[in-house]
Amino acid sequence: HECLRIDRNDVEKALKNGILHTKGKGGKERDVPLSQTSRTMLEEQIKGVARGHKVFIQDAEQTHRSEEHTS
C-alpha cells in the first residue's frame, strides 16, 4: 500500500536526504533509509514520470484497485 502511494516528489526528496517518508494505512507514517541499491532503483524508476505523478502505478489506475491486484 505504501509503495503504491509514492509519487515523484516523494522520491526526489528521498534522493536528496537519503530517507523515503511513507504514509500507510490508518495514516501510519514511517521513514525508510535508502541503501545505494534503493537509490539507484528509484533514480531509474522516476525517469519519464512527471512531478506529482505516482511512480509505481499508471495515471489511469486507482491506488486501491492496484493494491487489490498486488495482494
Overview of the molecule:
- With 71 residues, the chain is an alpha+beta fold.
- The protein has three helices and two strands, in the order H-E-E-H-H.
- It has helices at residues 8-17, 36-45, 63-70, and strands at 19-23, 29-33.
- It has a two-stranded antiparallel sheet.
- The chain is globular and about 30 Å long.
- The model is unreliable at 63-68 (pLDDT under 50).
Q: Which characteristics define this entry?
A:
alpha+beta; two-stranded antiparallel sheet; 3 helices
Short characterization:
This protein is an alpha+beta fold and 71 residues long. 39% of the residues lie in helices and 14% in strands. The protein starts with 7 loop residues before the first helix and ends with a helix.
Spatial order of the strands forming the largest sheet: 1-2
Distance between the termini: 9 Å
The chain-level mean pLDDT equals 84
- The oligomeric state is single chain
H/I helix tally: 3
> Which outline best applies?
globular
Low-confidence stretches: 63-68
Quote the beta fraction: 5-15%
Main β-sheet: number of strands, strand sense, barrel status?
A: 2 strands, antiparallel
List the helices and strands and how they pair.
Blueprint: H1 8-17, E1 19-23, E2 29-33, H2 36-45, H3 63-70
Antiparallel strand pairs: 1-2
